[in-house]
């Protein structure tokens, strides 16, 4: 337990200190300074040196080990782009450290570069990633999370109305996770800021989604979308969806534990403060981020009691909780200078890692076991 606390907190502070050196630079100056490159290296090292952190870790490790051993593998559940890079590293007989470090480098580089014009947010990003749910999320579902982080960067093409660049991102990202095609219609939806300054209405709609999502039988009303899964090359998702419709698949049960309640409270706080907060960031993408975030959390709470396959697509949008939390921290600390709002935001965001580590230590079974940090050279 102590090892995990030290690794996560020390890494957060190192990333924070490295990011501070970059915030005073103008947006026209070089972004990838020595401090930013060091920050990426530190993050990649922590991700690469881990052992059994993340539910999918062993599966990815076994796949890479088989490639290194020269086995000619074909995985129909892993996309061509991901397998190409995996085979490239395996052919050079790189240690699995470099395999996991590569994916982490792509994730953090996308996130950092997305905020090259809002560099004052990057120190807060460091803390939120390491002490919030994001680092542990990224260590699971690695392929999809590479694409998710890429979408945070590529979302700028929605605001800038650069459809060709957005389409190019979709095409490249498809080589890493097929579910990215779901983002195509959001080029149009994301340009309409449908949830701006009606905070009470937005909170009530969210509560409605939570209530409806507690009884997922409503999903049968959408049986007409089933053929579109196959059309988009998402047969696995289509199979799961059809099984839910015909009642042959057992639904998962959502657990309202302290971490989930903290996340919900943070989301409510973002919704409540957003109308006033956005006025100070009109030259940023905050409106776009909030639109995608709000769509994502409503979608998430509607499907939270279905299956993991139905929940995972919402991660493309709930990721925008990350920049909005950083906007909120900066707004509270540097604009309105509210210690109460700043401390509340910190507690709701950063308590996640401490509660999760305690759960992993006190009940080391299932997914909780994989939140405890271990270095690979310990085994």
Helix-strand pattern: HHHHHHHHHHHHHHHHHHHH
Oligomerization state: single chain
Mean pLDDT across residues = 87
pLDDT < 50 stretches: none
Our estimate of the beta-strand percent is under 5%
Supply the helix-strand structural class: mainly alpha
What is the 3D form? Answer: globular
Please tally the helical runs, counting DSSP H or I stretches of 4 or more residues: 20
Distance between the termini: 17 Å
User: Biggest β-sheet, characterized?
Assistant: none
Number of strands: 0
The total number of structural domains is: 1
Proportion of helical residues = 55-70%
If you had to describe this structure to a student in words, what would you say it looks like?
With 379 residues, the protein is an all-alpha fold. The protein has one domain. 64% of the residues lie in helices and 0% in strands. The protein is built from 20 helices and no strands. Helix 1 runs antiparallel to helix 6 (122-131). The chain is globular, with a radius of gyration of 20 Å. The relative contact order is 0.13.
Q: What are the key terms here?
A:
mainly alpha, 379 residues, 0% strand, single chain
SSE blueprint and pairings:
Blueprint: H1 2-20, H2 34-48, H3 57-68, H4 80-91, H5 96-114, H6 122-131, H7 134-138, H8 142-154, H9 156-159, H10 163-174, H11 186-189, H12 199-213, H13 226-231, H14 235-245, H15 258-277, H16 286-303, H17 308-311, H18 315-318, H19 321-335, H20 339-362
